[in-house]
Amino acid sequence: MKPIGIYGNLDKRRVASVARALVAWLRRHRLAFRVEEELAGVLGLRGGHPVAELGRACRLLVVLGGDGTVLRAARAMHPHETPLLAVNLGKLGFLAAVAPAKIQEVLPEILAGRGRLTEHATLSVSVRGASRRLRGLVALNDAVISRGIGSRVIEMDLRVNGEFLNSYSCDGMILATATGSTAYSLSAGGPILVPWARGIVVTPICPHTLSHRSMVLGERAVIELRVRRCPGELFLSLDGQDTYRLTADDRVTVRLGAYRVKMLGPAEPSFFSLLRKKLHWAGSSV
What we know:
Layout: E1 4-8, H1 15-28, E2 33-35, H2 37-43, H3 51-57, E3 60-65, H4 67-77, E4 84-88, H5 103-111, E5 116-128, E6 133-139, E7 142-147, E8 154-160, E9 163-170, E10 172-176, H6 184-187, E11 199-205, E12 215-218, E13 223-229, E14 234-238, E15 242-246, E16 251-265, H7 271-278
Parallel strand pairs: 1-2, 1-3, 3-4, 4-16
Antiparallel strand pairs: 5-6, 5-16, 7-10, 7-14, 8-9, 8-13, 10-11, 11-12, 13-16, 14-15
């Protein structure tokens, strides 16, 4: 049987202690495991592995950190769709929903096949310019085109399946998956999509025209953005972590990708229960 992988964000204060407890539990239950190379060094273990290797070789990957750690692991594992079990050592925890104290309670349920498996769509992103092409870029939450330091707006055109939709004067544009709809897009006024929805949220950042609102496009939408004018620096950011410099007239194409990120967790709480808790919604259930 394939081993269990362990990956953690070393910037989180508790990651080493939680990882040590998990390793001890796996050893007591005689379960094979592999640890990501930097975390293995901190734990004093030999034979650490890159995250991509854990994605290929393991039956599931336990991710210790916050939502950002999950995003990083998901992109690093591409194209392997090994399920992730995310333990929340961060703050919000939409993706990393398992509390550290619950890991030894949840893991046996997962291994026995009594957990919940959800599949999350990703974005496939490419950039085409006069002197370069970037292909095969992946994002789980969002792809964001934004300006650098400065107060001048960006002017960009947006096409869907080859048809011109609109021109925007704004600070940038967010293209989000259903998973990413509760992240940057939500802060910019975008809608919340349930995780199993297959669509792309298009949310302009501070548009100059008030009628330019967020939209939800279908799963077959191929979105092309071309920046016509940007007085300063211009960037493409994937999940707020991988950043690429753009130039005017670069064309950024975004669509839903074939790669799915599989998340394991306990049967409860449901997404709606989690949503109420994380967003501090209140009200009667009667």
